[in-house]
Amino acid sequence: MPELPEVEALAADLRGRLVGRVIRRVDVTEIAALKTFDPSVDALRGAAFTSADRRGKHLVLGVEGGLFLVLHLARSGWVRWREAAPRPTAGRGRGPLAARAILEASDGQAAAGPDGIGPGAGGDGFDVTEQATHKRLAIHVVHHPDQVLSIATLGPEPLDDAFTEERFAAILAHAGRAQIKGVLRDQQRIAGIGNAYSDEILHAARMSPFHPASMPADEVHRLYEALRQVLGDAVERAMGVPAASLKAEKRQGMRVHGRKGEACPVCGDTVRQVIYADSTFEYCATCQTGGKPLADRVLSRLGVRR
């Protein structure tokens, strides 16, 4: 799932490509992905992009006329830049394509050929895709980003200056006995952190995913420092990386997430995995749980020894 660092870098990449470019049209091929109807996507025709930003895990694209095209990429969505006019699609609802933005030619492009096609004819733009059986990607056209409920209810941005250790401590205290892994992933408590970076933050903090959110001040400090360091480093690594390479860069930067069976880079112990109904997480028992493997309910029900 794209999380704060990747969406931040994706927004920066698109900002350089989109701002000032005029929209020829936006085609939504996966109708279920479009969550709004007024304004319609047709209202974007002929307007220029004015901004490309991030809020939580949402990509927020500003458009002339006070409109915003908001994308939530869910678990398997992505935005793929397209240098040339698209080929005809295979048909509505088929394949990974959810939406396609086609741009008018820009002043800096080469002239079109006599037949009206070629690089100067425009047609470049981006595709919104989702490689998943269960489609969860969401597309909104709104007058203000806060009209998207999942944005309006977001918690604070963890890399903002206003996200102090004191504010973080208050969030954890309010969560009480809830498991810290879930609290870090709760978008209404803290924006932008998902499964992967919560694994990385907890590993850096040497803390169990099952640790209660309410904790002593010294542990709050250690976790806060780990959160800011892990996310800050990930954003720094991702900035400037082309959109097509961001997912690979994310995987390469992980120390425990997605590393089941590999050696922990800190202590050398084997990275372990816990399986849930629809997700997994990874951790190092030596670094995070005093050497004790965590219970895995799924494997326990199957009679698998770990």
From TrEMBL:
Please list the residue ranges annotated as the Formamidopyrimidine-DNA glycosylase catalytic domain.
2-95
Tell me one Pfam family matched here. H2TH
Q: Which SMART domains match?
A: Fapy_DNA_glyco (SM00898), H2TH (SM01232)
Provide the reaction this enzyme catalyses. Hydrolysis of DNA containing ring-opened 7-methylguanine residues, releasing 2,6-diamino-4-hydroxy-5-(N-methyl)formamidopyrimidine
Residues forming the FPG-type domain are 255-289
**Which residues does UniProt call coiled coil?**
none
Acetylation: present as a keyword of the record?
Answer: no
The UniProt GO MF terms for this protein read: 8-oxo-7,8-dihydroguanine DNA N-glycosylase activity; damaged DNA binding; DNA-(apurinic or apyrimidinic site) endonuclease activity; lyase activity; zinc ion binding
For this entry, list what GO says about its biological process: base-excision repair
The transmembrane segments are none
Under the heading InterPro entries, the entry gives: FPG_cat, FPG_N, H2TH_FPG, Ribosomal_uS13-like_H2TH, Znf_DNA_glyclase/AP_lyase
Q: Organism's domain of life?
A: Bacteria
Q: Which keywords appear in this protein's UniProt record, sorted alphabetically?
A: DNA damage, DNA repair, DNA-binding, Glycosidase, Hydrolase, Lyase, Metal-binding, Multifunctional enzyme, Zinc, Zinc-finger
Q: Which PANTHER family match?
A: FORMAMIDOPYRIMIDINE-DNA GLYCOSYLASE
Q: Which family does it belong to?
A: Belongs to the FPG family.
Q: What is this protein called?
A: Formamidopyrimidine-DNA glycosylase
Q: What is the species listed in this Swiss-Prot or TrEMBL entry?
A: Agrococcus carbonis
